[in-house]
Amino acid sequence: MHASRTFRITMTAVAVIVSLLFLAPVLWLVASTFRTATETFANSSPVGWSTLWPQHWTTVNLSSAIDNGFLRSLGNSIVVAGVTVVVGLAISAMAAYALAVIPFRGRSAVFTIVVLSFLVSFEAIAIPLSQSFSDWGLSNSLVALILPGLGNGLVVFTLRQFFLGVPPSLAEAAKLDGAGPFRTFWSVYLPLTKPALIGAGLILFLFQWQAYLWPLLIISHSSLDLAPVTISKAFGGFSTDYGRVFAETAILAVIPAGVLLALQRYFVTSVASTGSKE
Amino acid sequence: MSHHNGVRRPLAVVALLTVAATALAACSSGSDDGGSNAAAPATLTEPTSPVTITYAGAAYAADQIQPVLDAFHAKHPNITVKYEAEPFDDFNSVLAARLTSDKKSIDVYDVDMPRTEAYASRGYLADLTKTFPELKDDVDPASLKAATVDEKLVAMPYQTSTNILYYNKTLLDKAGIETPSADASARLTWEQVTADAKKAQSAGGAQYGLVFDQIDRYYQLEPLAISAGGSAGGNGDGNLTPAVTDAGWTKAFTWYGQLFADGVSPRGVKVADTPNLFAAGKVAYFVGGPWWGAQFTAEKKLDFGVAAFPEFEGGTASTPTGGWSLGLNPNDSKEKANAALIFMKFMGIDDGGYSQYLTSLTVPPSNNEGSAKFYESATFKDPRFAGVVPLMKYELENTATLRLQTVGYVEFEDTMTKAFDDIINGTDASQALKSASSDLVSAWAKYKK
Amino acid sequence: MAGSTIVWGLALRPDGPVNGVLDLFGLPAQPWFTSPHQVVLSMIILASWIGIGYWMMFLIAGLNDVPPVYYEAARLDGAGPIRQFFSVTIPMLRRPLLFVLVADTVSNFVLFAPVQILTDGGPNGKSDFLMFDIFHQSYELSNPYQASVELLFLLVLMIAIVAVQFRLLRTDDGEE
After folding, report:
1. In 3-state terms, what secondary structure has residue A30?
2. Which of A122, A233, B409, C74 is in the most buried spot, having the most CB atoms within 10 Å?
3. What PROSITE patterns does its record include (chain C) (predicted)?
4. Is B92 in CB contact (< 8 Å) with chain C?
């Protein structure tokens, strides 16, 4: 028992230190939001409390961000990422269900193509794709921003892996109860793979949340700009508003972190709910 | 699934080929479609019905340029200019995607002066010679030269630039260093500045002695090579033969690399961070554009002064210059081109050009009449800026050195930035310049047919 | 990604906070991104920081699906925590592990934003990774054909590695 307790304390200490290391840059970013860029640079070295704690609190960075339309582009980002997560998850989960559960001819070929699809990086095809989009009259629209994010090979892949892990006996039991394939999908597979669905949603979400090149190419009205593009516009030819960059980057980082924290309980309770499996 | 194994492999190969072919087609269709430089008309007519034109810019933020656009709309009520600010670093990618894909999405756009030839050869620029035949009466000669390719005017120059040496008076006083004069005739040498910078670090508590604003950019570093007797970086037919390994380049960049090896300048700092270091009072000497004046004067506790851009001992004085022009999309419809040209004329010529409408003006306009007003700007009235106006006038007239004019400028700037970064990080200068030279030979091969 | 990159770029500056922390422990300042010998290491630190929390989520999701009875059985058989990890956790985690392995490999093969923002392929070309060069050739230098050739190489390389990964983590019934 004694050895196991030392082990546990050591592991907990390691976990705390690692998470502090992960948190420090975020704290620095948040601190830099509430002080002038000059103060941030003046206190970057040597490291002390003043590195992570502003000496003179100010909200000029936040108001500069708001004045430059950051709230509007943040709203665009939220809409685009939100729609992508909902629609993308629906498409991908159904595709993954087919690939994992429903036997059909050429299933492994389809799966191979899905895997290959995410080997080609999006940047490699962005310029020609943007030309096709403008030929189709789609440039400068939310649809143009959302469409490329919907089909995501990685998401289909991960959900397929988790669906394969669901015991077939449960699906058979559902079938005996008279459930069709869609019913089985909805009431057996989805509830059992909630953490995986959250992870898959995160992939879809981050694709749009960090999207930079694509919106830059396809959007020319600043009213439709996504948040990362607005941030990069702080780097002008003759001036860089670093304080604004810090503030906007902090906001952009805090939102997904907050959403994940809210969803954290699914990772914890899942053990109890799936403990009965097999 | 094991019964599928027999067909899996060929299917995978087919899938692979399909993907590869798509990628190949995708990548290659991004190429340019040759030069179809349409000529702009000789006369402009005020439109009688509303026209909206799109202006893609990288020089100014949207809120900075808005007063100019409002003033234009007041004078030409039938023309509305929609401004799209693009990030400076990605501007070329954006132009490549917009000017080749949706040909009508941009009417007029910012042209970084040294890239004029490259854009013209890709067919991005309409010929403006007939529309603005008398431009030489209105703008400074260096700007006009930068907008001219093969004796054709292909862009409307509107803004140029110069650089000065800022010093932190507090740090210099502490180290007992005499503050330099703002007089161009009292120009310091780099050797002197280096010695004083080290002294400011050891005796004055400066974290860094000397920092260049554009730390790894050819724009600000070219004058070092010229001052040491080097070339602009290329010569021969079309300036397409690299010349970055001569004695001047080697001398200048051995010195530059030594600054970083000695800790006089900081490694690992990006261009956009450098002014903040000076504003935070950590730097004794800072080489930069007058446009940082607005930021520096806003720091009430920062006691600074200005002096001329230094030169090497026994060398010639040379200062960075160049700025932005406006280009016209050659595929524009007649109606839009006419409106866009009226706007370009307003920006570059009418009553001294755009600069009078800007709220805070920190970069000299190309227009002669406009630059007279520029020197009256409130920023330069700050006592810490004493002497800057005659200094800037002198530099623009006498020592301003244009960047290398070549169709291969994009590759040139890219290669040189990498070479400068390597020199900053400790690579021997002559070795870095030699490898840059051989990189340039292969990068420029496509232009030499 | 861009945000983390900018933050880490500033943090790992030779005069930045990371060297400040090293200094607190009496360690010498490191050149990080500015040294040809450390730039790859610094990129690995950066990419790992971005990646660890992200990919861990999928493994946690997989861990939750391991029935606790397996651990109880292993404990009854006298297996310690390390033995349990290798004999229960890893085999039961095979499917999520395959996904994480493949997806993490691919996403780092096509990683180029930090290189573009921080080092531009330097110093001395030591961080000129394949995907960065592809991006650089096609977006900055307008060399689409060279970029296409490099992209093909990258694809073949990734397909080979991913194929090995699929084979390694294949289950006995032939299902990945």
Report:
1. helix
2. A233
3. ABC_TM1
4. yes
- Is residue C47 a contact partner of residue C119, using CB atoms and an 8 Å limit? no
pLDDT at A47: 63
Stretch C37-59: mean pLDDT, rounded? 86
**Cis preceding-peptide flag for C123 (omega within 30 of 0):** yes
Q: Is B385 exposed, middle or buried (0-12, 13-18, 19+ CB in 10 A)?
A: buried
A 132-171 residues inside an 8 A Cβ radius of C: 154, 157-158, 161-162, 164-165
Contacts with B254 (C-beta within 8 Å, 6 or more apart), sequence order:
B429, B430
CA dihedral angle for residue A145, residue A148, residue A154, residue A158, rounded to 10 degrees? 70
Q: How many CB pairs below 8 A link A and C?
A: 133
Residues facing B212 on adjacent strands: B287
Residue C139 lies in a domain: yes
- Better-predicted residue by pLDDT, C144 or B326: B326
Task: Write a three-state SS string for C27-66.
Answer: CCCCCHHHCCCCHHHHHHHHHHHHHHHHHHHHHHHHHHCC
In a domain, C61, yes or no: yes
| Subunit contact B90:A117, Cβ cutoff 8 A | no
The alpha-helical segments, DSSP class H, found in B205-305 are 218-227, 247-261, 274-279, 293-298
CA distance B389 to chain A (A): 19
Q: Which helix (H) or strand (E) holds B327?
A: strand B324-328
* Complex-level ipTM: 0.80
Domain B164-320+401-447 has CATH 3.40.190.10: yes
Query: According to CATH, where is 3.40.190.10 located in chain B?
Result: 51-160+322-374, 164-320+401-447
Q: Do C152 and B23 touch (CB under 8 A)?
A: yes
Nearest to A38 among B90, B106, B279 (CB): B279
Domains contained in chain C, number:
1
Q: Is residue C175 part of a domain?
A: no
Residue A88 DSSP SS3: helix
Coil, strand or helix: which one is B158?
strand
Is the Cβ pair C19, A45 closer than 8 Å?
A: yes
Reported as a single tens digit per residue, the pLDDT across B165-185 is 999 999 999 999 999 999 999
Q: In this complex, is the C-beta atom of B268 within 8 Å of any C-beta atom belonging to chain C?
A: yes
CB atoms A202 and C57 under 8 Å: yes
**In this model, does residue A254 exceed pLDDT 80?**
yes
Kindly report the backbone phi and psi dihedral angles of residue A88, in degrees, each rounded to the nearest multiple of 5, phi listed first. -65, -40
Domains, chain A, in order of start with CATH, read: 1-58 (no CATH), 64-274 (1.10.3720.10)
Nearest C-alpha in C relative to A123: C135
Residue C36's nearest CA partner among B421, B255, B254 is B421
Domain range enclosing C53 = 2-168
In angstroms, rounded to a whole number, what is the distance separating the alpha carbons of residues B99 and B119? Answer: 11
Query: Residue B161 CA to chain centroid, in angstroms?
Result: 9
Is A103 exposed, middle or buried, given 0-12, 13-18 or 19+ CB atoms closer than 10 A?
A: exposed
CB contact under 8 A, A123 and C13: no
CATH number belonging to domain B51-160+322-374: 3.40.190.10
Indicate whether B283 pLDDT > 90.
Answer: yes
Q: Which residues in B lie closer than 8 A to residue C34 (C-beta atoms)?
A: 267-268, 424-426
Summary mean pLDDT of chain A: 83
User: How far does B291 lie from chain A, in Å, by closest CA?
Assistant: 6
Assigned token pair, C176: 């990945």
